[in-house]
Amino acid sequence: MGVGSFFTSKLDEAIGWARKYSIFQYPFVTACCGMEYMATACSHYDVDRFGAGLPRFSPRQADVLFVVGTISHKMAPVLKRIYDQMTEPKWVVAFGVCTCTGGFYDNYATVMGIDTIIPVDVYIPGCPPRPESVLDGLMKLQDKIAAGAQRY
Amino acid sequence: MEGAAILDRLRARFGAAVAETHAHRGDHTAVVEREAIVDVLQFCRDDAELRFDMLSDLTAVDFLKFPGREDGPRFEVVYHLYSLPHGHRVRLKVRVDEDDPVVPTAVPVWPIANWLEREVWDMFGIRFDGHPDLRRLLMYEQFVGHPLRKDYPINRRQPLIGPKA
Question: What structural domains and CATH numbers belong to chain A?
Answer without folding.
Answer: 30-48+62-144 (3.40.50.12280)
